[in-house]
Amino acid sequence: MKKQLIELKVNGESHELAVEPQRTLLEVLREDLGLTGAKEACGTGECGACTVLINGKPILSCLTLAIEAQGKEITTIEGLAKGAELHPLQKAFIRYGAIQCGYCTSGMILNAKSILDENPKPSREEILKGLEGNLCRCTGYNKILEAIMAVSIGEE
Amino acid sequence: MEELSFVGKSVPRKDGMEKATGRALYTVDMVLPGMLWGKILRSPYPHAKILNIDTSRAQRLPGVKAVITGKDTLGIKHGFVETPRYPPDQYPLAMDRVRYIGEEVAAVAAIDEYIAEEALSLIKVDYEELPAVFDPEEAMRPDAPEIHPSHPKVREPYKNIGGKTETGWGDIEKGFAESYLVREDRFEGQLRTHCYMEPQATLASYDLSGRLNVWTSSQGPFIKRAKLATTLGLPFSNVRVLKAYVGGAYGGKIDLFSHEFCASLLSIKTGRPVKIVWTRQEVFEASRHGQPIIVELKTGVKKDGTLLAQQVKVINNAGAYRGSGVVVIFLCWGFVMLSYRIPNLKYEGYSVYTNNPVRAPQRGHGAPNLRFAVDSQMDMIAEELGIDPVEIRLKNARQKGEILPNGDYVRNCGLVECIERAAEETQFKEKYAKGKRQEGQRIRRGIGMGVSSYFSGSLIYPNASAAMVKLNDDGTVSLLTGALDIGQGAETILSQIVAEELGVSMEDIRVVAADTETTPVDIGSWISGGAYVSGNAVKMAASDARRQLFEVAAKELEANPEDLIAKNREIYVKGSPGRSLSFAQAVAASIAKRRGNPIIGQGHYRTMKDVPMHPSLATTKGRWSDNYAFDAQVAEVEVDTWTGQVKLLKATTAHDCGFPINPLLVEGQIDGQVSMAQGHALWEEVLMEKGKTLTTSFLDYKIPCAKDMVESHYIDVITEKYEKDIPYRTKEVGEGYVSGMVAAIANAVYNATGVRVKTLPIYPEKILKGLKEKKDGGK
Q1: pTM score above 0.90
Q2: Which of B19, B363, B525 would best serve as a mutation to test chain A binding (most A beta carbons within 10 A)?
Q3: At residue B1, does pLDDT exceed 90?
Q4: What is the nearest CA distance from B329 to chain A, expressed in angstroms?
Q5: Theoretical Cys-Cys bridge with B163: which of B94, B351, B465, B766, CB 3.0 to 4.6 Å?
Q6: How many CA atoms lie within 13 A of B416 on its CB side?
Q7: Could you tell me the CATH superfamily of domain B31-130+196-249+253-286?
Q8: Max alpha carbon distance in chain B (Å)?
Q9: Chain A neighbors of B697, CB-CB under 8 A
Q10: Domain spanning B366-452+627-778 has what CATH number?
Q11: Are B293 and B236 in contact, with CB atoms under 8 Å apart?
């Protein structure tokens, strides 16, 4: 298919790109912009590993076309830390052992951010419900929950 | 005893920063200039002859750079096991026959994925279909279609026998004759799959000097190098397997896979890097899954519950090639005899070829299904005898100091304490008694126990680990280890050991890992020997470096080397902390005094160092491991008797892992295994029909999600210790805890409902059927 010229705003920076309209946001982020933090684990919207934030809301970038994301604020895991200063969720994930293989981590942290942005003091159940679409095979989710709870009460 | 600063502490993982920021590079993320994309053509038939393959149209498609079939290979077979009894039986690309749906028939390299995909559709393969068989017991019948000839050393008139393990001791008939109660039951484990989040992926790059570089999502580079070099006909030294982060493996990425061979051969053919990444559907349909086993179990006990005799028959549906099927029937013997003392045993295990995808180890490698059988039956026996489930386990539990029937010595064993403490902390006896008195209630609670034991490293290639510790000019330390961190935290615990031995901090240590060219050999992250074997190799290397450094520091401080202590980046004289120099100063002094000869510590460790080789897979004779971990696990469930739905509310794991090098990482291993056991016991099953996979996505194959999170409790039973300079005997924590929990869940379901489910998973309809039968039977 013929390429289209689009502009994507990712982590505060604008990028002008020529992309085929059928390409997903995930492909363009990973292959054209070198932002490989978002991962593909299923490609069909079941696992959440490709989660990124669009205007602050989590979306599945494997089911989103790059051309649909024009004019919106896209945040990937690479845009979360401020320089060397990690986001509290990133710190907590490390400190509480919420990361093992790390393949689901980017999506998990971004989704956790949107949960806390919407409701800074969620209950255990609200967090688990919010993370339902992000699969993790290593941790059993226990330490992930601990890390998010810790951030919600102001610990890092 | 000297206080420890790093070992035994919950140090955050070393790769946490890279993983939390999305910077960690996995094989799927790797890109090289000029890289091509590879795709694999798979067999649509479960069993067929390949009459002809025409690749000419695919080759003519613009953008296609190479197409390979079996004819382009050397026709060298490989296998998970390669021994005289069990020679390799699988070609990396099919030659004249395919034996399962999804078997690799041809591969293409093209300038992008779409063209590669299109090229596959242009390859014309003429097949002649052959009769196929899918069920292992049907495949054993003399009139079944022959997939491979039965193993020549198996004397029974069974067909399709890939391997057999036969062993025993005592007098089984006498044991049964003297028994007060003899029970016979049949249990079936289901076909499950790993669900590693990173799909199978490989990037191979052949350079013009004749060297092949390979990044692949794996569980250790050395076994990959050996099998790639052998099948490609290259010297080992021409194949370099390098580290990439691994997005989960759980047993599913150990030995050679066809795509690794194909990416390599396509790179050799084209002179360009070639990358192959599987789709999730491919992983479900064609990758190696776990081992479904059938366990026929006959057990005799005294009136007081003491085990007298056990007769075990295990049948493994091994799939189309030998895979790890012949290992699982060996291991199942071990998982029978480790946890409980059995004075008389007869064991036979069959690994049976069927026209299904090949099997791989999956976390626990047979133990979860085997312990499900043994510990379910243990509860059935206890009930018949009117004994408490805790008491019957305590009566039969292994104890410290016992010699196992194969000659292994149980140097340390906390199983009795695990059982006692798990029971105490969960108020097991009270809850168990309550569980039986809920007739008439819709929602019922139940509690159940399972125990398990697991080996910690054995002798399978590459058998041993070595390590190097380099002291750098600025006082930092480089650790060179062949170990691969697959998420379990290998690099973190190995760094903790270096930090402890040298008295430097975690940030001072840089790890160079898992590269067959620059790092020493390593046992691999797939035989539960990482913390024990690689850990001791690293300990020896760090201690060697410290010894060399102390020789220099002793002269500087005018003291004896044996009086020195390294701690907090300082080296000081015991008893007079004022006489000290910094670690960096000592390293600087060593460069000056040793005239530029840098300090490089070397270490090596092999489990059972005086034993020449692995135990016999056929007879179980020979040493297996010198370090066994034990655990007792308790599950607390809630069952809705109207819907049959089971909720695992709480899991308690009391475990003897020797001592935890990093308690936080140990907890993570336990949580992950509890979660896998939950999926195993309740939901997960790869459904197949005539060799075709029906569950091809995460929507069809249900793994636990966040809403299913189980409250997880841990009880450490410490039986070993860590002391400087001498090897330690910590045990595995990565596989045993999935195994006790499956049985514990099944026993808890029985406690709640009175329904005994002997085939996994415990689907709601099985519980409803059981409840109905109980009701009808009661009338």
Answers
A1: yes
A2: B19
A3: no
A4: 26
A5: B351
A6: 11
A7: Aldehyde oxidase/xanthine dehydrogenase, a/b hammerhead (3.90.1170.50)
A8: 92
A9: 42, 44, 46
A10: 3.30.365.10
A11: no
